[in-house]
Here is the input.
Amino acid sequence: MHGKGWVITGMILFAALAAFPFYWNWMGEDKPFPKLEMPEKARACVEKTEFMRANHMRLLDAWRISVVRDNLLIYTAASGETFEMNLHKTCLGCHTSTEKFCDRCHAYNDVTPPCWKCHVATGVSGEGDAS
Amino acid sequence: MTISRRKFLKTVSASCLAMTAQSAVSHGFSLPGHMTPGPRELKAKRWAMLVDMSKCDGRCTEDCIGVCHEIHNVPYIPSVEHQVMWLFQEPYENTFPDRSHELISRNLKNRKFLLLCNHCDDPPCVRACPTQATFKRENDGIVMIDYHRCIGCRFCMAACPYGSRSFNFRDPRPHIKKIHPAFPTRRKGVVEKCNFCQERLEVGKMPACVETCKKGALMFGDLGDPSSKIRRILDEKHHARRKPQLGTRPSVFYIF
Here is the structure.
């Protein structure tokens, strides 16, 4: 093989570079999971916590489609409890501060859903203001 | 290692099948609960509005327009190019251009007609929408926009023969005097229009403009029910739809 030295050095360099992000991540400290402020009216969410944590976006998506397209309004949860399918009334009714609940977890996971570009996050900066 | 052509094809097709099956399973999401209509929902086969211009002199239309725009967070932008309107007014020649001529009565000529989305039975905007963001509800005939899906292509605006749709050229929020938190605002880059107060109907309330009008010039009812009050009035009185020759069959009617 011609230029064996160069080739092998190149391969080692490439491997080191490619592995760097993994190494960096592994060496770094874990960011602590953000502390979410639970509603003061401490009762259960629409569905079980594990389900909501994993699937709240799917639930909201299904709610939206049902409300705007199929004239449905009431969601009866697995527990039998009923909720109005309304982000403002139902979700923000308990989670009054989106900043201390939604945003903290979204920031931790580096996702930026555009919910509050249209929906009014009343908790963020008082009634009526939605910057 | 050698592999026969037959065995290769078998392995590849089995792998493809396995992958498809896996994605089909993982995408199937179902909610643990179930959904039902609201208990107080006002129901109709096809909602329709009747504007009685013999009662509406166009002087207080600021009231119904104002209430509509306030509760729906419609921005006020003075620029004609950028303004957003759910309810608006136009003179006779713009409302009924095909019926207008130089000798129409002074009464009609000087009057401002209240305009809104016609919620057509055969809506051209729905056909134009490439993302199904705008659609006609089969249950009650309301033409709705799902603002989450709107990509702002404005095909619907080009397709609408009534100019009922507005585009958010700017972020609307700075132009809303007081944001009404219960109803979402829109964002820059989506089309918006009147929704026949769908959010009020689902909780048992009449549209805001109908409720606001003190003169009783606006009537809202079920076009699909032959015994409804609105159908009775349409049977009795001479009325007009805008641009009937286009075959869109509007759900908004005018009495003069």
Residues 4-27 of chain A form the longest helix (24 residues).
